[in-house]
Amino acid sequence: MAFTDLLANGQAVGRSGGVVIFCFGPLPQERARVRVTSTKPKYVVADMIKLLEGSPYRVVPFCPVFGACGGCQVQHLSYPAQLAWKRDVVRSALGRIGGFTGIAVREPIGMRNPRNYRNKMSLVVEHTYQTPTIGFYQQRSHDVVPIDACPIVAPQLSDYIGRLNLTRLNDTILPALAQASHIVARTARATGQSVVTFTTAQQSEAVERAAPALSAHLPGTVGIVNSFDLNSANAIIGRSQKVVAGEPDIEEFLGGVRYRVSPGSFFQVNVEIVERIFAFMRPGLLKARRIVDLYCGAGTFTLFFANAGCSVMGIEESAQAVVEAQANAELNGLESRVEFRAGRVEDAVLQPDVRQALRAAQIVFLDPPRKGCEEAALRAIADSGIPNVWYLSCDPATLARDLKVLAANGYVLGVAQPFDMFPQTGHIETLVTLYRADAALRLSNEEAFRDVPEPVWPDRAEPIDKRPEYPDFVIRED
After folding, report:
1. Which residues contact 357 (CB under 8 A, 6 or more apart)?
2. Cβ neighbours for 371, distance < 8 A, ≥ 6 positions apart
3. For a FRET experiment, which of 58, 221, 329, 362 has its CA 20 to 30 Å from that of 425?
4. 132 and 103 share one domain
């Protein structure tokens, strides 16, 4: 049968006799023989038995466990084709869910080398066998795929996988592995520092005893942490943490800002793309702005804005993240330009002082979790009359839903720029700018989009590195 589309989870979509079929393995423009494994009222799920006719955009996956490991979904699709497909995913969501027609979604800004980019990995420790086995979860299950390396994580982290597997015969480290359910490692590109966290059900003396040997065994490690007190059987990080060797943080350097990052912090996994997002936004910060950063996390973007000369209020639900954000502001001498609040964004935007800050600001920056924003928060933004909204989203569907609310409350879409934060997967980060409805601003946006070509799926002729120039932001002045 023939396949015509590709879902974000890597499933190809085909139709046979009026029945929709979802199947992992095929790509659009391919034909394959499949076996139905599950029947639903409106569709069926199948496994690919044999590829009958391949796409010109198919490539050989570079990871030996691709298709079994659940980490990547589209290694079999060439990287230029991945970028074009992701652009189409964003464009489709904006039209289908948001009701936006004629929006020029720009070419995704990708990576020079779309491998070895993740600065954080979460390994699963499998205890089914006589000695612990380290790997990642299999697609759509909690079965573990054993691995000795990973070409998606930073080389230093990939090296750790092999080294941890070699410790099966090490009497000092093996007891720590025997008690661990997950091992989380995070590294910094700028400094090469890493912190490795062993998650156990209870506080572990075995992890503490093994910490010196682990530090010596894993080059670049500056800290070993024991995470425990789990809130669920599958929790990757526990509610309590104890530093059992070295330091709890690593130091990263991005866009002229130093960041101290702890194992449990939310910090973007792809620093190359974060720098490209910074570069994209920089033209809108040539003048000092007043900005409200909602869902600010540990202050990644707040401090970038402040370092550009802006005055920023950051709001974040996690109290620990706010503590780290404030510490990073002091580390960079930016505390006079930032103010952080701990609390749910949806509650904070209803507080009088935050509403006043919104009314006084030129920009509100949104970087919510995958579920997007609650409508009450979006309406509070619109009620403030703030002239510019910059919305960074990791989910095109919730992005389109939220943009629809903002558009219904007086905003016009400007630039829609995807960034490939997660190559080889179905995920895409998208930055959209919005402006209060105004004829002059709409004209300026049309000028910005004048030379953007229509998308062509599934490939582009130009090399990956030749991405379009970053557009200038249109900023409404007071």
Report:
1. 290, 292, 313
2. 395, 398
3. 221
4. no
For the segment 40-95, what is each residue's pLDDT rounded down to a tens digit? 988 999 999 999 999 999 999 999 999 899 899 999 999 999 999 999 999 999 99
Please tell me which residue in 69, 150, 373, 394 is annotated as part of the active site: 394
Inside any domain, residue 137: yes
Q: Is 394 a catalytic residue?
A: yes
pLDDT for the residue 213 = 94
Find the CATH number of the domain harbouring 429. Answer: 3.40.50.150
Which structural domain range is residue 29 located in?
2-55
Residue 16 host element (H or E):
strand 11-16
pTM over 0.85: yes
Helical segments of 352-422, H only: 352-360, 375-384, 396-408
Three-class SS of residue 360?
helix
Q: d(Cα 43, Cα 22) in Å, to the nearest integer?
A: 8
CA 384, 390, 392, 393 dihedral sign is: positive
How many domains are there within the chain?
Answer: 3
